[in-house]
Design a protein that fits this description.
Blueprint: H1 2-11, H2 13-17, E1 41-46, E2 58-64, E3 70-75, H3 85-101, H4 109-121, H5 132-137, H6 144-148, H7 152-155
Antiparallel strand pairs: 1-2, 2-3
């Protein structure tokens, strides 16, 4: 089954088109000392996207440096663009996720955003070895089927 999956991904045009390519030269890493969650946030503006419902075309992206938790808000206009590396890194993840989910329906990016964020929040991060969801709430995320058809984890939570 693993071989079949690998073969599929190698032949999938969409998978190959959205693969991570590291083009930036290696840089010295700098330790950022953070005492607790929400101590430091990165903020950036992403867009413009194709005009969506509500006349929105930009995203305001906030990233907590400690947990890597991403908050986004779809907005109609911007007045200034300031960014930092933590938010720019989150922006790459959001854009990659949206590209994978949208090919023809470019104006539906707002509707697809929650699924992209769910995927990011429930995937272990290489720097923390934990999911942003776990770092934020100190519990693993539950999928909706666990709530509708109670599992022991949902019952005893």
């Amino acid at each position: 089954m693993k071989r079949d999956c690998l073969a599929f991904v190698k032949k999938c045009n969409k998978c190959q088109h959205n693969v991570n390519l590291h083009k930036a030269p290696l840089e010295q890493l700098h330790l950022i000392s953070l005492p607790w969650p929400f101590y430091m946030w990165g903020v950036d503006i992403l867009g413009p996207f194709p005009l969506a419902v509500g006349q929105v075309k930009f995203l305001l992206v906030d990233v907590d440096y400690f947990t890597k938790w991403i908050k986004v808000k779809a907005i109609t206009t911007i007045s200034a663009e300031r960014a930092n590396s933590q938010a720019k890194s989150a922006n790459k993840v959001i854009l990659k996720g949206l590209r994978r989910r949208l090919e023809e329906a470019k104006g539906r990016w707002v509707e697809e955003l929650s699924q992209v964020l769910w995927s990011y929040h429930t995937t272990p991060h290489s720097t923390t070895q934990e999911t942003p969801f776990w770092l934020m709430f100190r519990t693993d995320a539950m999928v909706s089927i666990e709530i509708r058809e109670p599992s022991p984890r949902a019952i005893f939570f």
